[in-house]
Structures are given as C-alpha cells and as structure tokens.
Amino acid sequence: MTKQVHYSDYLQLDKILNAQALESDLLQQHAHDEMLFIVIHQAYELWFKQLLFEIDSIAGIMQNPVNDNSPELQTVVHRLNRMVTILKVLVHQIDIMETMTPMDFLDFRDMLRPASGFQSWQFKLVEAKLGLKYQHRHGQEYYVSQLRQEQIDVIRKVESEKSFIELLNAWLERMPFFEETDNWINFRATTTTPALAEWDGGHSPFWTDYRNIYSTGLAEAEQNNLQFFDSVFSDAAGTEGRHLSPRASRAALFIMLYRGYPILQLPFQLLNSLLEIDEQLSTWRYRHMNMVHRMIGTRIGTGGSTGRDYLKGALDKHYIFVEIARLTSFLIERRKLPVLSPEMEKRLGFVS
Amino acid sequence: MTKQVHYSDYLQLDKILNAQALESDLLQQHAHDEMLFIVIHQAYELWFKQLLFEIDSIAGIMQNPVNDNSPELQTVVHRLNRMVTILKVLVHQIDIMETMTPMDFLDFRDMLRPASGFQSWQFKLVEAKLGLKYQHRHGQEYYVSQLRQEQIDVIRKVESEKSFIELLNAWLERMPFFEETDNWINFRATTTTPALAEWDGGHSPFWTDYRNIYSTGLAEAEQNNLQFFDSVFSDAAGTEGRHLSPRASRAALFIMLYRGYPILQLPFQLLNSLLEIDEQLSTWRYRHMNMVHRMIGTRIGTGGSTGRDYLKGALDKHYIFVEIARLTSFLIERRKLPVLSPEMEKRLGFVS
Amino acid sequence: MTKQVHYSDYLQLDKILNAQALESDLLQQHAHDEMLFIVIHQAYELWFKQLLFEIDSIAGIMQNPVNDNSPELQTVVHRLNRMVTILKVLVHQIDIMETMTPMDFLDFRDMLRPASGFQSWQFKLVEAKLGLKYQHRHGQEYYVSQLRQEQIDVIRKVESEKSFIELLNAWLERMPFFEETDNWINFRATTTTPALAEWDGGHSPFWTDYRNIYSTGLAEAEQNNLQFFDSVFSDAAGTEGRHLSPRASRAALFIMLYRGYPILQLPFQLLNSLLEIDEQLSTWRYRHMNMVHRMIGTRIGTGGSTGRDYLKGALDKHYIFVEIARLTSFLIERRKLPVLSPEMEKRLGFVS
Amino acid sequence: MTKQVHYSDYLQLDKILNAQALESDLLQQHAHDEMLFIVIHQAYELWFKQLLFEIDSIAGIMQNPVNDNSPELQTVVHRLNRMVTILKVLVHQIDIMETMTPMDFLDFRDMLRPASGFQSWQFKLVEAKLGLKYQHRHGQEYYVSQLRQEQIDVIRKVESEKSFIELLNAWLERMPFFEETDNWINFRATTTTPALAEWDGGHSPFWTDYRNIYSTGLAEAEQNNLQFFDSVFSDAAGTEGRHLSPRASRAALFIMLYRGYPILQLPFQLLNSLLEIDEQLSTWRYRHMNMVHRMIGTRIGTGGSTGRDYLKGALDKHYIFVEIARLTSFLIERRKLPVLSPEMEKRLGFVS
C-alpha cells in the first residue's frame, strides 16, 4: 500500500481536540472544571456511538434466521459481551465526574441552561433500539419537550422498527424442539395428569410435566408464583404489554434449564449477556442518580427537571429484558429436571 | 527479636482454611458452587470486621475534642477513606458471586434454610455504629426474628451508645467561628434586612445575609427550597428525627462553602468521605438487590423473606449521612459568597 | 428438612472472626494498621483456596477425554472465567493495601520477621497446578529456604503430577481433524510446493499450505519469525523445555483461526480464558511489585529478600501459557485462510 | 441569561460523532472492529487532553510561591487526585480493547500503516510536562522518526521549559524549616557525634542525628543503603541526572516523617498523589504492553517497531517521580523519630 496513514489524521484529532469551547470562557468567567464537564460528556457520547454501532450490527445478524450454533450467533454473543465491557467502563467513569465538587459545578452551572444530559439522544436511541418504547418511558412529555424535532424523529423512527428484543422474540419462537413432538422426553407418567396435558393447548407434555414439578416445589407462601407461571407460559395468556410470547418464553426457560447441551450453550450465553446489559445500564442510572443528588441536591437541573427524580423514575421502568430476568423464578433443581430422550439429546448435539 | 514468626501461624491459616464445610457434602449431594458461596461470604465478613475496627478507632478519636487540624483529624479522614476503598472492593466482589448461575445455586439452595445473608449481624453493626437506629430500619420485625438473641443484644447496645453521626454532630457544634461575634464578615448592608437579622435568633448576621443571597438565587419553581432551608438551619426548627442540629448543619455548610481555608480543608475532606461511604453502601445494596433478583427472581429467600423487596426497602431508608448530602441544595456560587473579614481569614489559618 | 442452618454456624464465623492476633498487641505496642495487614492476607488466602478448588475441579474434568462440545467443556470454560473474575478482584484489592503508608507499616514491620508473603504456599500451589515447574521458578533456593518442609512436600508432589497445561496438551493432541486425511481443505495448488509438503512429516497439506501463506505475508524484517514458526509447529522440533507439542500447538492455532465453527467455539473460549488468567496473574505480580517498592523501597523484606527484585524476576519467568500467547505471531488475515472443504465444515458442526 | 445552550451544540457533537472514517470502508473491505479501534483511541486522546489541561493549571499555580497550606495547594492536590482517577479509568479501558481478538485486528491492521499509537504526541506531552526529558526516553531516535516535525517541536519546547518536577523541586527547596536554626529539635546528645555534624555542611543537627538513627537500624546486608542515603541527602552529592536536590529531598523526607503536623498534611498528600500518578502510568504501560503482545505477538507493529519491546523498555525508564518513591528506603520507625521542640511544633501548626 502506498498511502501513508498518520495517527492524527486517521483519528481526525483536529476535530476531536478542538471541540471544547467553555461557556465560562465566552463569558470571561473561566471555570476550571468546565473542561472536565465537556470532555467527560464527549467521551460518553463517543461510547454511546460505539454501543449503537454494535447494536446495529447485532440486529442485522438477528434479522436473518440464525442457526443456533452458527458463527453468526457467536458474533452476536461476542458483541453483546463487548457492550457489557463498555458499560462497565461507563459506570466507572462516574468516578471522574465525582471529582467535581458541587461548588466547582456552581461556577458554571447556570451558564449551561437549558442544556442537560437529558438531551443525549444517543442514549435514548440505545434504549429504543434495545426495545424501550415511548409509552413505557418515564417522563414522556418531558422527553418530547427537551429534544429537537429531528432528534425526536430519529428516535420515533427507531421505535417503530423492529427492536432487538422483538428480533430476539422471533428467534426464540423459531426454536423447533418441544412444540413438534410428544415423544422427546422420557415420560414420567406419575407426574403428568390429563388436566395438565391441556395446559399449553396440548402441544407438549414436557411443559405440563414441568409445571407439575414446579408447582409441587413451591412453598405455601409462594402460591401466586404458579399464577405468574401460567401468565407467562400459557398460550391462553394475553400478549398485552409484553415483549416475549409464551412460546418464546418457554424456549428461553428451556435454554436456561438445559444450557449444558452443545446447541444451547451459545443461546444461554446470549440470554445471560442481555441480563448483564440491563444490570450495567441499571447500575449506571443508579450511580448517575446518586451523583446528581450529590451535585445539586433538591435543586432543579439545568434542563428544568428535578434531575434525580427523573432518573429515579426511570430506574424501574427502563429495564428492557425484565421478562428474561424473571424466568429465574421458574427454575427447578437440576436433579428434578425431566430427563430428555436419547433422540432429543442427539438433536441437542450430544453425541454419546 | 528471637521469636520466629511464620506466615501460616501468624495468619492462623489452620482456622481460616479449614472453615469451609459444604452442606451439600454432608448430604452427599456435592454442589460445586457451594464452596464459592461459603468463601465469598467469609471474605465479606472479614472485611466487615475490618470496617468495624476502623469505625471504632475513629469513634475513639472523635469522642475527645478534636482540634480541626490536629493529626488526629487527619487520621480520621485517612481511615474513612480506607473504608471507602474497602467498600469499593466489596461492590466489585459481587462480580464473583454473579459467576454463579441460578441453576447452580438451586443445587444447594434448599439445604441452607433458614440461613440467610440477612443474618450478617456484623453488617448491621456497621450500620448501627455509623448511626442507623432501630426505628429507622426497614423491616424491623423481620430483623428481630432472624438474628440470635445475643446478636440482637450486641446491636441494641451499640444503638444505645453514641453513634458516629452523633459524635460528628457534637464536633460540628464545637466549631467556634460564626456564633460568637457580629463582626467577622464584611457587612453587606444592602442585602441584610432587620427582619432577616432575627432569623437565627440574632446570633450571626452571616446567616441572615447568606439566607438572603440564597433566596434571591432561587428560581420561581424552587420556592419551597427556602422553607427547607429554614427547617434545616433555623434554631426554631425542631430536632425530631434528625441527627444534625441547626448549629451543626450551619457549621457543615460553612465548611463546604469556605473549604479552601487551611483550617477547613480536613473538615471538608471528612464530610466528603462520609458521602462516599453512603454512596458505596448504597451501590452495594443496589447491586446486591439486582443480584438477588437475578438469582431467585420472585421466589422467597432461604431466610423466608422476598430478599429483593427487603433490600429495595432499605435502599432509601438506610442512608446515614443524608443530612449532609442535602446541604448541597443550599450552596451558592463562589463569587456571591460573603467576603470574610481579614480577622476571620486569619482565624481560618490564612496568613497574608 | 428439619435441620436448622444458621448463617454464623454455616460460615464458621467463630473461627474466621477470631483468627486475628496482632503481634504489636502481644508486644504492647499497638499498631493500628496491623489489623488491616492480617485481614487482607487472610482474604487473599481464602481466595487462593477457591482458586485451587476450581483448578482441581477443572483438572478432574480434563483428565477424562473431553468431547469438544460436551457440557463438561462448557463447565471448564465457565470455571476458568470465574478464576479470571476472582483474579481481577485480587488485583483491585491491592488498592486497600495501598491505604497503608510506609510509616504505618514500619510501626509493626520488624515484629513480623521472618514471616513474609513469600511464604504463601497456596499461591505457589496455584502456579504449580497450572503448570509452573520448580526448575522454571525464579529464586528456587530462596523458595526452599522459606517454606516449611511439609509445604515444600505438598508443592513438590503437585509438581510431579500432571499439571493443567499438560492435560491441556493431551486434550489438544486428541483433536482429530487435520492429521488424518489429505482431503479436508480445498487444495490451493498454487501455494503448495512438494518441499513444503514434507514440512510436518507429510501428515497434512494444510500446514504446508498455511506455512507458505504465512511466509509470504512476512515483512523483510520479520524473517526470523519463520524459523520461530518451524520451531513451534514442525515435528522435527525438540520438546525440550516446552509444554505444548508441535501437534498440540497446531491444534491450538487451528482453533484460533477457525474459531467460528460450532465445534471450535468453546475450545477458543478456553484458550482465551487461559491468556486472561496469565494476564491477571501478571498484573497482580506487577502491581504487587510496585506496592512493595513503595512500601519498603530498597530495604530488605521481612523474609530476608529484596522483595521487589524477587517479584521482578518472577514477572517474565512465571507466565504459564506463554506458548499459547505467542501463537498470535502466526495468525494470518481471515480472507487469506485456506478454505475448508464441505466435508470438513460438516465435521466442524456447520450445517448448511 | 437569554442565550439558549443546547446539549449537542455545547458538546459540538457534530464534530465528535462525525470523526470516524474507517480505512477498511474506504478500501471496501469493511472490518467491523475498526470502529472500536478508532473510538477507543479518540476517547484516550480526549482524556489525554484533560490530563494536559490539569497539568497546565497545576504548573501555573506552582510557578508562584505556594504557601504550604494555602487554598492553592489544596487545589493542586485535588487536581492531581483527579488525574489519578482519570488514569484508573484509562487502565480499565484496556478491557474494552481486549474484546478485539487478534484475528479481528488482522482484518484491518495492514490498512493503518504506518500509523501507530506511538504517534500520540499528547501522551508524550503528558510525560514531558511532568518531567521526562528527551535524553531519558527509551527509543529516542524512533521517537523522532515517527512524529511530525511540528509535533516534535511542541514536545521539545515543553522539554525546554520548567517541568512539573522542577517546580516541585523549587517548592520543596523553599520550605524554610530545618536549614535555618540549630535549635528546633530536642537534642539527643548521645546520638550525635561531631563527625556527623559535618555531614550536611553543618546546616542542621537534625539530619546528622537522623542519619545516625537510620544507620543504626540498618541490617548488615543493607549497608550500602547508607551510601545511597548520603548520595541523596548530602550537599556534597552531585546533581548530575537528578531532579531533586539534596535540600529538596530532605524536605520531602521530612514531610513523610512528620506528615501529621497541620502544615505538612497537604504537602504529604501532594507527594503521595505523585506516586499514585507514576503507579497508574506504569500499570497502564504494563497492561498496554501485555495487550500488544497478545494482539500481534512478536510481529512488528504498524509503526515499524516491535511494539512490545518499546513499551517494555519504557517501563523502567519513564518513572518520573522515582526519586520520591525511593525516599521510602530512608524512613525510620515513628517511635525512634527525633522529637521536635515546642517552638518547632508551633511553627508546624500544632497548637497545644
């Protein structure tokens, strides 16, 4: 190759390193910590761009039928894990912000109005692409009032497209195993009753069997877990307000239960990395909330909100993969698991 | 010295390394991950012991009148910062626990009943010694039902003694400065009205002046911050349910405002490290809560509680130093600060 | 279950929390920081015990022929990753030690002679079980002089048994693929010469082909990389001082190159986690070395060594999986990779 | 304020988020991981800019005579600690880079030649501003050959100006205490001999006294530590190749020894934060070196160097504050410290 690439050109450092203009300098009231404030937000936005880039690539792969152990699935898991690693650094980065004391922030805070971290449309895009819809957002009106129209348009467009969790649902629904045949478990006649056999529309004795074992293991105080179980897995359950269909939920639980089989190893890693992403996002919001509280107390933020309250509201509502997380409630001990038939074991990649 | 110390004896490794007996081995159903479960809890308890040791040493120092820039105060700050460093590792350590999957936990979970992390009386002691009283605890009855009588007795005894935050209050109240004289600021006649002069019982024109500046800077939507201001700093305010008196609160705010003066540097570091401790404790509870949710979902914990709900309840209620954190709400810009008189500057250690 | 398990009994906290006896208290010269010194070393030893427990379980699995995508291999990878997570916390834990200043250490340092962190036989066991032999240790004589005979015996016994890296070598050698047939790649006649076909004893045209591509891609200044290549992969190469045979090395490189194929996904994760373990161990030694330097400078340690020099010597010599790490030198661009035949693709688990 | 500041304008996100052009896209061989490669380097450069900004502000303060407990000194310590916090995140950020596997890097590596991380002139500026001179750099010629002339000029200019460590030396030399009077310690006649009194040119009996105590405490094997002691503290010692004069070194040691006195508290924190900075820089280089080794093995880097060798060479040579670190070698136990006279105690801010 004859072209000579130079580090500073390649990284376009003339742009990157000349994008810091302090408002406090414009107003001739230089506030030292404003540089930190700008740089850290720019670093966050760079990483948000990277997160979006990874999500788009993953969604691109998931849009096509993905074989459960194809190289593409490995790529999906790898990139989700990269997102987790990035999010951990973003959480750590709050330590840097916290070296700014409230008094130091006050030196330039008023000069920034009405700018606010709330206006990071890239972060909202991350949430939207993963699966957060407008109607589930905390503080919807505020959200519309703060962003520019073109930014709202971009987010709305993303909200109207297939999100990652919808692609995930489709992928889980495609898993063939347990719906198609009656004979893939070693029937345990004692635990299956005709009544239960009706439970999921007669598709699979596995789930009626499983429901029975689960039900037996519940403590007295846990009885409404069984109703919850039915509402998640039964085909009679409505789909209102949920991302994962009963069928997809059954597939996900099956993956968790039998994750040791070759064909389920990557799918299990995939589900696990989604929980990690939610957890890191959640930790980020929580530490962010604490930081805002420490910085401005009960004062109103530069964007006009009581910053802490907004973040607190989002804490619970913005979990994307909560439906996967709660499947944990439905696990049973490994030694009580229905034993799969040799035929099924073979299909799951186990070669004796 | 003639005595020969050996590493293994010195660390009593025969005790430490022979204190892991797996219930699943006793029941001849070896569950590999139970070792991790034991070891990580033991590591936590070791560190809790260290935290208690540091708190006791700090309280010992604070029980005596502490000069504001004595070596002892430096020691207090140093040890509080060490506690922060330890807490950060404890938060990080949750990563290790999360390498245990819910299915792996199920292999031995039932064997542990009714043991529960809730029974860590050392952690409760940490909270109590810092300042959390029984009546402010989330889930008081549960707490009594779970611990052994001798453990409850220990905690109750600590609750009846002077906690760290009470020692802190006394120390802040001892700060002499602003109560004793009318003349230590450069009076800004324009901002002080007779009405305001009455505000803190006539002790100090500084605070009436300060209140005026603060009030002027409040946005329209923030007007109830002024009532809040009065409820925190005015001597007319009751003391019901609070740890810091108006006098101590004024001293703490003064420290934040004028932290640059030599005599206030260590006091400022001290207040800051307390906020760090609360934040790390809070992050620990939050990640802990998420981990429990991921591990058992909505099932009932081994101790009989819905673990996640308990932890969630504690999140807000167990902040110890919230009264310091909220002082941030009352800061004003540095350039608007009342200018101190040369006499006062000298007392604060500033040598021109 | 009728047995009632209690947290404090289960964790044997009476042992764990009563194993801290300060030498400085015995000598009636209480040194506050000695408690930290004891507790942190005990925490380290607890985690070393856990690391040993994981290594033993992994070695137990690897001793049997492990199918390349069996549940057992997944377990191996999972536990290696857990070890990485633990090691990261151990590195972080050095932050706590560093809250002890040199002057604070001096308060009790002389009382500990000749105890020394060097006497942690558990850490030496970790190294030995992974694959470090006596003759490759830095400072062998010192090592013998410091430990007790029974501890030396334990380590020597482990050194004489199959270490993890030897089990790894056997596992890699068992991989069947490329040795058995001439026809599993799409022959690229242009790049293969008869001379090269001789290269690995005629077993496989793949490697002669690969060597040719690799050789072509080397810059002029890199020509001795080719000799290095031959010394690693050619059967003519001696086995003196190496853990991985040419055959095993070829298998490992193949895994790195074609990691996308289903059957190679877990093996790739396994190799990767070994590099992580070495890297974390190395970072631990490095930060440890810096800490010792900061603590005692060029003085001689309590055990009689110049602590820093020992640790520095160990830095390079104690890499266990260096032979895997250096395989990176032999990678070629993905687009230049020999294309596998459909038959081979099928064997690697790819279903078209 | 009537001006309306918007988040995206304020952060100039149009520049920041449009500065990623993939070489692999230009060559129509899209390599997914190149985006990560660009973004992470840009994030590093943003933080290097922030580090430079902090160093400049600190140097600006130190250029003026700084009172030992003035607000300015507190600002210096605060900003040095911020630098430590930033460096910790930069070290952590390597985790993200390590999610790129060697094969993924190969997909675009050749397209970047001869660009190289070595061309980060900002990082070289950080080193230069702290105190690293051209003649102490590892690989000087390489350094000149890689950078652009204007970048070399900038670094050379900085090298010719007063670096931070030179300002530190001057500040330490300004400390008045022990040079001026014979009477500020409680003379311990038994330990002082006339011969020793000559040691530092007769300026101060303190140091002759101290040298005697130190010498007595040395083990037999440590005798050349005494020569080292003399070479560091004696005025007869040459100044060739050193940053800190004997006088400044004495002041720094005195600060470490008597750090508890009010006036020495901030100076002690300052010295400590410098050691932290060196340690984080060193950990960064070490992990960086390991990462490069893992990524390209023994191949030659895009910039033409064997990347790992360069970084390894820099490891030892680029410590900036090594002269402060090694003072640890000269500490003595607190209980053996010369007792200061009441007059001196008063000057150090201790009010009885």
From TrEMBL, chains A, B, C, D:
What is the organism of origin for this protein? Niastella populi
Kindly list the positions annotated as binding heme. H288
From its record, what is one biological process in GO terms? L-tryptophan catabolic process to kynurenine
Instruction: Report the co-factor binding details.
Output: Binds 1 heme group per subunit.
User: What is any Pfam family matched here?
Assistant: Trp_dioxygenase
The record's catalysed reaction(s) read: L-tryptophan + O2 = N-formyl-L-kynurenine
HAMAP family assigned: T23O
Q: Report if keyword Metal-binding is assigned.
A: yes
What's the stated role of this polypeptide? Answer: Heme-dependent dioxygenase that catalyzes the oxidative cleavage of the L-tryptophan (L-Trp) pyrrole ring and converts L-tryptophan to N-formyl-L-kynurenine. Catalyzes the oxidative cleavage of the indole moiety.
Q: Does the keyword Iron apply?
A: yes
Broadest EC class assigned to this enzyme: oxidoreductase
Pathway recorded for this protein: Amino-acid degradation; L-tryptophan degradation via kynurenine pathway; L-kynurenine from L-tryptophan: step 1/2
Instruction: Give me the residues that bind substrate, please.
Output: F37, I38, V39, I40, H41, R109, T302
Q: Which prosthetic group or cofactor does it need? A: heme
Quaternary organization: Homotetramer.
Could you identify this protein by its name?
Tryptophan 2,3-dioxygenase
Source organism phylogeny: Bacteria, Pseudomonadati, Bacteroidota, Chitinophagia, Chitinophagales
Q: What is its EC number?
A: 1.13.11.11
Regarding protein family, the annotation reads:
Belongs to the tryptophan 2,3-dioxygenase family.
Signal peptide positions on this chain: none
Could you tell me the superkingdom of the organism this chain comes from?
A: Bacteria
Q: Which UniProt keywords apply?
A: Dioxygenase, Heme, Iron, Metal-binding, Oxidoreductase, Tryptophan catabolism
Molecular function (GO) terms listed? heme binding; L-tryptophan 2,3-dioxygenase activity; metal ion binding
